[in-house]
Write a structure and sequence with these properties.
By secondary structure, the chain is an all-alpha fold. It has 2 domains: about 1-185, MFS general substrate transporter like domains (Growth Hormone, Chain: A, Up-down Bundle); about 195-390, MFS general substrate transporter like domains (Growth Hormone, Chain: A, Up-down Bundle), CATH 1.20.1250.20. The chain has helices spanning about 1-15, 20-30, 40-55, 60-65, 65-85, 90-120, 120-145, 150-175, 175-185, 195-200, 205-230, 240-260, 270-285, 290-320, 325-355, 360-390. The protein is globular and about 70 Å long. The two termini are about 35 Å apart. It is a multi-pass membrane protein.
């Protein structure tokens, strides 16, 4: 189990590697591909579309092939896509390769999150997502090593693709370990294939989806528009704003490491509540007209607040809805999360363009309040279910 856990940690790093590479390489890529700088948005939308689709169908795939095989094929798809991007002659081919990149990312993300939720405790879920952050940070740094040369982005994509191929080989060699993990814990992955329409009718399912949607809306909105808010609304320099927003991501990464340490004593429910409280504190510091340093504190606290929520909600899924259907629920949760991260930030950008960037922290507060209402509704449902079970016994 320990060796398998190490492999899963490495896989989470590889999940994060491609996520920020497009943004860091695009200023050079679009010129070489004779495309417009705005067309990166279309590529990102195609990737997110593939991710949403594969997340929705992840339960069916895993029910038939198992987590290990789905993970191997998914990583292979991303490896082929990333390696293929290194040789694309034009923008059309880049869009075509964005399809398998998105499909592979969504399936493996959903599969591994549910596997860890079933077989490992909460600290590993937090630390795994901390390792995803390491991968997301390493991708642009790795790409930066090659961008100084002509067509260096091609070499960068090729190297990342090769790293993914190596991971595929490691996963293939360790296939027997995944089976032993199921035998050791006695927990199966998916016992019944349930239609999405049926899953949505389960008490608390829709509230769970609202929670995931709101969280990803908060995280992506803060990351995308935080710097612009500081520059345009708070009149802070571009360089300072960029540095301060980086503390948001540092807060998320460090916060998830700390969350892993304290999750032994603190329940997932209280981790979620604590994170929501910190988000409210961080956003409130941005609203109050105090010194600029309070804006920095706001971003740090906002990052720390975001840190435990997503891993804790993922880890709580089998407890909320049962191990038998957790993969089905996990798939639609991940899909809803991607919808939030894909569509909310552009809408917020449109709204700020019309109203002004002063609404940025207000939007954060609005989404966290909605998230709190949805998660507390699930908690009420769980308490009633527990009381009913106790009364029946």
């Amino acid at each position: 189990m320990t060796t398998l856990l190490i492999i899963i940690y490495v896989t989470f790093i590889s999940l994060g590697l491609p996520d920020a590479v497009l943004g860091s390489s695009w200023p050079r890529m679009y010129m070489d591909l004779n495309s417009s700088i705005a067309s990166a948005g279309l590529v990102a939308m195609i990737i997110c579309g593939g991710t949403i689709i594969s997340s929705l169908f992840s339960a069916r795939l895993i029910n038939r092939w198992g987590t290990a095989h789905v993970t191997i094929v998914s990583v292979l798809l991303t490896a082929i896509a990333l390696g293929g991007i290194a040789f694309v002659p034009n923008f059309i081919w880049l869009c075509l390769l964005a399809v398998p990149l998105g499909l592979g990312a969504g399936a493996v993300d959903s599969a591994l999150n549910n596997f860890v939720a079933l077989h490992y405790n909460a600290k590993h879920m937090n630390w795994l997502h901390c390792f995803w952050g390491i991968g997301a940070t390493s991708g642009p740094l790795l790409m930066a090593l090659f961008l100084m040369k002509d067509n260096g982005w091609r070499t960068g994509y090729l190297v990342i693709g090769v790293l993914q191929i190596i991971l595929v080989l490691v996963l293939f060699i360790t296939l027997p370990m995944w089976k032993r993990a199921k035998i050791t814990t006695g927990r199966s992955e998916v016992k019944a294939e349930v239609k999405i329409s049926v899953l949505l009718k389960i008490k608390g399912a829709k509230s769970a989806l609202v929670g995931f949607f709101c969280f990803c809306a908060i995280e992506m909105t803060a990351g995308l528009w935080g710097s612009t808010y500081l520059v345009l609304y708070k009149d802070i320099s571009v360089v300072t704003a960029a540095k301060w927003v980086s503390f948001f991501y540092i807060g998320v990464t460090v916060g998830r490491f700390i969350a892993g340490l304290i999750s032994v004593r603190v329940s997932n429910i209280n981790m979620i509540r604590g994170g929501q409280f910190l988000i409210i504190v961080g956003a409130t510091l941005m609203v109050i007209p105090l010194t600029d340093q309070f804006q920095l504190m706001g971003f740090i606290i906002l990052g720390l607040g975001c840190a435990p929520i997503y891993p804790s909600m993922l880890h709580e899924t089998p407890h909320r809805f049962g191990k038998e259907i957790s993969q089905g629920i996990m798939g639609i949760q991940m899909a809803t999360a991607y919808i939030g991260s894909t569509f909310v930030p552009p809408l917020v950008g449109y709204a700020t363009n019309r109203v002004g960037f002063g609404i940025f922290p207000i939007v954060i507060l609005g989404f966290v309040v909605l998230m709190m209402l949805s998660t507390e509704n699930i908690n009420r449902i769980l308490r009633r279910r527990k009381d009913t079970a106790l009364a029946g016994s």
